[in-house]
Structures are given as structure tokens and as C-alpha cells.
């Protein structure tokens, strides 16, 4: 019997992951928590207001709901982290250590914590980036994710904590807005296109980044958590890949369905962050160890998002 706590449930991934976990394990067994109040479908289930920097409040929620599994999604992402680096470091690191310590103390059985392609840097091979390679991230978010990966591996090796993690590429969904990431343009572009508006992109037209449709990201997250512990050979974080594209390529794909859509380009500091990340990711270890395989490419994702957003607008 699982009792799940999702920390950061009101975020872009949190919203969709919480809904899927509720489908699988029952609404009452999945407690959403966030510093912000829930809205939309999330408000239909149990919710705890939680600032994850408050370790006492976190531990009392674990006890109150008899929590077995924690999905710790709260973090300051790459672009926002650069506005206040010391706070981003503090939040991203302290909160992870609170969760790992709770697992070490026997209060939780399983932990999920996301890492990111932001762990890579300008010295990393850009194409088909391997699992183990030169890292040297340049953003505070990337530094915190790389350090977090080492902590996850450490708590597993030293204390037997069952922690599992994925290095997400840019995640693209249409059910909630992203916040503070470099890859957010690939979400914003769909909202503009389906409203009949043009889009000014802050990334150069030909900068390629690894991306993934939210449906695949949610599936990967649940699959790795349900995999046999012996199959999880990497306890830092797994590379996973969905698709790679440039702003020009996604714009062209949208124009296939909405021909009048226009994009202009005005790169800012996020272009430098994007330039420091890989173009594409090698996820051979995830495929071999726990059968990971994505379902959506750029064309299938574009079609799915536009048809859903258009139905929402009409309905
Ligand atoms: C970001 O852009 O910061 C995130 C990420 C790649 O982890 N979407």
C-alpha cells in the first residue's frame, strides 16, 4: 500500500504527475503539496500547503499521512536561478537533503528526485551526450543538480536509500504553465500559436535542445519508480531522451497545422544557457536497465498539443 507525497505539485510536471499517480493509486493516497495553492483538477484531492525549506513541517506531513513515497519536484530552474544564485542553491540543495535524511531515518521507503540536462556544460560532447562524460555546468541550477545527483548516489551507497532519478530534457506540456526554465519557449510557442498570435523567441532559430513531451516524462517517472530495485543500476540519475529540435524546426511543424503562425527571434541570456547544453542525449542505459522508450516525436507531439488546445478553446 503506497501513500505518496508530491512536493511541488502545482508546477508544470507536478500537476500532470500528481493526476496520473491519483489515477493509478487512488486520489486519497496521493497528497499534493506546494508553497502555492492548488487550482484546477489538483484541488479535487488532498493537499498540504508546504514550504519545503521548513523541515519540521515536512516531517509532520510525512507522519500525518503515513507517507511511503516522496516525489520531490520543487526547485528553482535554470533561468530563474541566475537571478538569485545563492537562494537557488539553498532551496535546491537543502530541500533534497531534508528528503534524503527523512528516507535515511526510515520515514520514507522510496524517493524520486529529478535531475536535468543542465548538469552538462560547454565541455560536454554535444551530440548523443553519453551517461558518463565531462559535466562542468555553468548555471547554479545545473551545479545544484549535479551536486544533488552525487548526494542521491551517496545516500544510496552509504545508507541504502531507495532513491531514483532522471535527467529530464526540456518538458513540454499544455495543461499548466512552466516557470523559470530555459526550455519554456517550447511551451509558450504553442499557447501563442493556438491563440492566433505571433511569438518572439528568446532562443536563436538554430539552437537545438533535447526535449520531451509531458506524457513521456510522466510515464518515464512512474516506470523508473516501479522498476525492480535490482534493475536500477544508476543511483545518481539516468539520461533519458525524447526528441531534439531547434526553434525554427518547431515553428515549421506548427506552421504545418497553423500556416499563418509567425515567429521572430530576439535571443537573451537564456541563449547562452541553451548553448552550454547538449543538442541530443544518449539514453542507452535507461533503455537497457528498465526498458525506457519514448512514444512521441516532434510531429506527434505538435499534433496532440494543438488539437487539445484548440478543443479547449472551443469547448
Ligand atoms: C530548464 O530549462 O531549466 C528546465 C530543465 C532543462 O531542466 N526545463
Describe this structure in words.
The protein is an alpha/beta fold. It has 2 domains: 4-169 and 213-239, Rossmann fold, CATH 3.40.50; 172-211 and 242-280 and 296-314, UDP-galactose 4-epimerase, domain 1. 42% of the residues lie in helices and 15% in strands. The protein has helices spanning 12-25, 55-64, 78-81, 85-104, 140-159, 185-194, 214-226, 247-257, 269-275, 284-290, 298-314; strands at residues 4-7, 30-34, 47-49, 69-72, 110-112, 115-116, 162-164, 166-168, 170-172, 199-201, 209-213, 238-239, 243-245, 263-265. The strands form 4 sheets. A 6-stranded parallel sheet has the order 3-2-1-4-5-7, sandwiched between helices. 2-amino-3-ketobutyric acid binds next to loops.
Can you lay out the helices and strands and say which pair or pack?
Layout: E1 4-7, H1 12-25, E2 30-34, E3 47-49, H2 55-64, E4 69-72, H3 78-81, H4 85-104, E5 110-112, E6 115-116, H5 140-159, E7 162-164, E8 166-168, E9 170-172, H6 185-194, E10 199-201, E11 209-213, H7 214-226, E12 238-239, E13 243-245, H8 247-257, E14 263-265, H9 269-275, H10 284-290, H11 298-314
Parallel strand pairs: 1-2, 1-4, 2-3, 4-5, 5-7, 6-8, 8-12, 9-11, 10-14
Antiparallel strand pairs: 11-13
Helix pairs in contact: 1-7, 4-5, 6-8, 8-11
Bound molecules: 2-amino-3-ketobutyric acid.
2-amino-3-ketobutyric acid is lined by residues 77-78, 116-118, 141, 168, 170, 181-183.
